[in-house]
Design goal:
Elements: E1 16-17, E2 24-25, H1 27-44, E3 53-57, H2 62-77, E4 83-90, H3 97-110, E5 115-119, H4 120-124, H5 128-135, H6 140-158, E6 163-165, H7 170-183, H8 186-193, E7 196-199, E8 202-207, H9 215-224, H10 242-255, H11 259-271, H12 276-279, H13 290-303, H14 316-329, E9 363-364, E10 371-372, H15 378-387
Helix pairs in contact: 2-9, 6-13, 7-8, 7-10, 7-11, 8-11, 9-14
Length: 405
């Protein structure tokens, strides 16, 4: 039986079946198509401006490594005129983050980008190892998410940078959509689906150039480009709520490959139903609980901390990486498969009825100087609980939220 030709060039042998649509492609066409789709995401959403300094949130994982590689390639190919650098956060997790930071240092050399590292111990006087030893693994992602977001903002502020890009992919966004649907939180869904997010607590904006890229395709791109990345999962992440949403998304993907983008697009459609006073990122947040927004921080912190490798259902990404290595050794082999599924009917749009929400006024945290709607910011309140040997995973309803997703 003759080899299957590439669906695009029709000359080279197809080596890759795209997880997104089962299209059979050769290596060169897949890499070119992946980069073209990221370029289209960047240009169609006007993510960057010429001369802009961009900090790439680098964890050493596959997402941030691919993001750095693709942005460097596109910046040179399409003359974006960007000044790119790497910004890493050291949470202080021995056996995980210390090893991944070695990968980031190698990436900085390989891509000829400056690297800045900000540590939890430096900013907060606590490492995540110390936090977990005191509070246990339950709820530790809430602490890490709050600390990590503020650390990225502070690190960028030190460098005089107003724009941070993160490696959140389509799987991450779909999981966040599913998490917010399970919570019944439409307003937070609006913030989660935006490709550019801003916080009322900071003048630093964030964007997700890989928002529509499948996690499996990111693995394929990293493999065929021979990128150097760290693929060990965070030792504290399995207890996170995101794992349940991830399992559901992966099960849907097996039945219907387009399910991930379907969920993302549906989340965007539902987000448009949110009243402007709730969804507008330039407006202060409503009077919700800090625990709810801490969950926002957990969702972003966990999805962007580079710990997703191996954390999918059954270690799916780690298994996929091993499979790619094994297939590469067995030359001349080709594996084909067909997924069959049935389109489901879309759910009835939720009600657009919303209560009138009070505005809040920003001020500086009296302890750390971080912008907050309260005299003491969320990170300092969590630190107070730690320092008093009395963890505060949840904060009372009477305390308003100082920042948005």
């Amino acid at each position: 039986m003759p080899p299957t030709p590439c669906a695009l060039c029709h000359t080279s042998r197809a080596l890759i079946i795209r997880p997104k649509n089962n299209q059979k492609l050769c290596k060169a066409c897949f890499l070119a198509l992946f980069e073209a789709e990221i370029h289209n995401t960047v240009t169609s959403n006007s993510l960057f401006s010429p001369g802009e300094r961009i900090a790439i949130g680098a964890s050493g994982g596959k997402d941030s490594t691919v993001l750095a590689s693709v942005l460097k390639t596109l910046n040179e190919r399409h003359n974006y005129g960007l000044d790119l650098l790497l910004l890493s956060i050291d949470e202080g997790i021995k056996g995980y983050r210390d090893d991944s930071l070695e990968t980031v240092k190698r990436n900085a050399t390989q891509y000829d980008m400056p690297l800045s590292i900000v540590g939890y111990d430096e900013l907060y006087g606590w490492t995540m190892d110390q936090v977990v030893s005191q509070i246990g693994k339950k709820g530790n992602c809430t602490y890490c998410g709050v600390f990590r977001r503020q650390a990225l903002d502070r690190g960028a502020a030190r460098l005089g940078i107003k724009h941070v890009v993160t490696g959140h992919n389509a799987d991450d966004v779909a999981e966040t959509v599913m998490m917010n649907l399970l919570r019944g939180d439409l307003p937070r869904l609006s913030r989660a689906t935006s490709i550019v997010t801003a916080s009322a607590a900071s003048d630093i904006k964030r964007s997700k150039p890989l928002k529509y890229a499948y996690e499996k395709e990111i693995v394929l791109y990293a493999h065929h480009k021979r990128l150097d990345y760290f693929s060990t999962e965070c030792i504290y992440s399995p207890e996170a709520f995101r794992g349940s949403a991830r399992t559901l998304i992966k099960n849907l993907e097996r039945v219907r490959p387009s399910a991930i983008l379907d969920v993302v697009r549906s989340g965007e459609d539902m987000a448009r139903l949110v009243p402007a006073e709730v969804s507008n990122s330039n407006q202060p947040l409503a009077n919700t609980t800090d625990a709810a927004v801490a969950a926002d921080e957990e969702a972003e912190g966990e999805a962007g901390c580079g710990s997703a490798n191996g954390r999918a259902s059954g270690g799916e990404m780690a298994a996929m990486e091993q499979k790619l290595r094994n297939e590469e050794k067995a030359t001349g082999k080709e594996t084909d498969f067909t997924l069959q599924g049935q389109r489901h009917d879309r759910c009835k749009p939720p009600s657009t009825t919303a209560k009138k929400l009070p505005k809040q006024h920003l001020q500086r945290c009296v302890r750390c100087g971080y912008l907050s709607s309260q005299p003491v910011c969320k990170a300092c309140m969590l630190l107070e609980g730690l320092n008093k040997n009395r963890p505060k995973t949840e904060i009372g309803v009477s305390v308003s939220v100082e920042e948005r997703y």
